[in-house]
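Fold this sequence, please.
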Amino acid sequence: MTPATDSSASPGGRPPRGSLSDPPPHTLTAHIVASDAAQASAWYQRAFGAREQARVTLPGGKVLTVVLQIGDSQLHVASEFPQAGILSPASIGGTATVLQIQTGDAGALWQRALEAGAEVCHELADQFWGERHGQLTDPFGHRWNIAQHVRDLTPEEIEAAAAQAFGG
C-alpha cells in the first residue's frame, strides 16, 4: 500500500491518515468497481479534483484498490476481478447507482468533468427541489449527479413542485 500521506505510524500505533485501515470520515462510504482502478483514479482526479489517499498494487502491477478523497468524503475504487464476481458497470451493462457531489460551484465542476470526457445524461439546470443539478456518466460507466444548493424550499413547496413536474 502506498499512502499519499506520511507513512509513519501515528501515536498509539494507529495507521497514518489515508491508509486503507483508517476509518472513513462518514458512516457510509461508496466502494465502486472500474475496469481499471488506476485509470479511474487518474480520471476522478482530473474530473472531480479527487486526491488519492492510498493504493494497493498487486504483483504484476494491477491495482487492487485506491482510496480517493473528494471534498470531505472518501471513495474506494476497485479494479474489476470477474473471476471473483467483482464487476464494473461496463461488464454488467450499466448501473442502478448514482453518486452525488454537492459543490459550491456546479457549473465549474460540470465543465471540468465534461472536459475530462464525461457524457451528459441530464443537463445541468435549476431544479424544482432547490438545486442546480445535472447528471453525467464517467468513462467507467458510473453515473454522477453534480449538485449545488441554490434556494431554500419547504417540504410542502417541494411536494407541490414535484406534483406539477410529474403531472400530479
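The mean pLDDT is 88. The domain at 95-168 is CATH 3.30.720.110 (Signal recognition particle alu RNA binding heterodimer, srp9/1).
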